[in-house]
Amino acid sequence: MRGKLVAVIGDENTCTGFLLAGVGETNKGKSNFFVVDAETPKSAIEESFVKFMEDENVAVVVINQIVADEIRHLLDANDRQTPAVVEIPSKDKPYDPTNDSILQRAMKMFSADELR
After folding, report:
1. Phi, psi angle pair for 96, to nearest 5°
2. DSSP the chain
């Protein structure tokens, strides 16, 4: 896992926070972040997600849950272990664990007694 990147797909505040934390990388015109706003077409979000998922240098894709909801079909169809996909809340919308497909898959692996 050494030398792998964290990719970020999210609103401006989320991307800025991760960039300030030092995860930003721009190399040969490619970057490991994609800023989404109200004007961003769904196709651009899908393209960015697929690009990060296919990039061998990316170990984790962090995505705002509100953005993930736009491309939920891609997240639900994803069966790859790496890169890991992590949904996080945005400033404008709190995290909803019932919408997180990765968490839902993980919960199915454990019995109710194990989760207490």
Report:
1. -120, 105
2. -TT-EEEEEE-HHHHHHHHHTT---EETTEESEEE--TT--HHHHHHHHHHHHH-TTEEEEEEEHHHHGGGHHHHHH---SSSEEEEE--SSS---GGG-HHHHHHHHTS-TTTT-
- The pLDDT tens digits of the residues spanning 28-72 come to 778 999 999 999 999 999 999 999 999 999 999 999 999 999 999
CA dist 87 and 10 (Å) reads 10
Cα separation of 46 and 75, whole Å? 10
* Residue 63 CA neighbour count, 13 Å, CB half: 28
Nearest CA among 39, 45, 38 for reference residue 9: 45
pLDDT tens per residue, range 14-25: 999 999 999 888
